[in-house]
Amino acid sequence: MKKALVLSLAVLLLSVPFVVYGGEKIDINTATAKELMKLPGIGAVLAERIVEYREVNGKFKSIEEIKKVKGIGNAKFEKIKDMITVGEVNK
Hints:
Elements: H1 2-21, E1 26-27, H2 33-36, H3 44-57, H4 74-80, E2 84-85
Parallel strand pairs: 1-2
């Protein structure tokens, strides 16, 4: 019984990021700050930095480029990389 409870809790915890952000990828080139805050580890300050970076530098050309935003390093990127997209980018 205890093992089943622990296993159920583990599965629930692993699925939390997908429940929080809704399962669809968030386009970091068009998302509002409020939408960006659905990503794990992205609060109001980081969400505003992402929007500001985009306004100053233009659209992100790849999801990796989000690491240029102050406060988003490799660890945070690893947590969100499967949840974000840059949509269609004209090159």
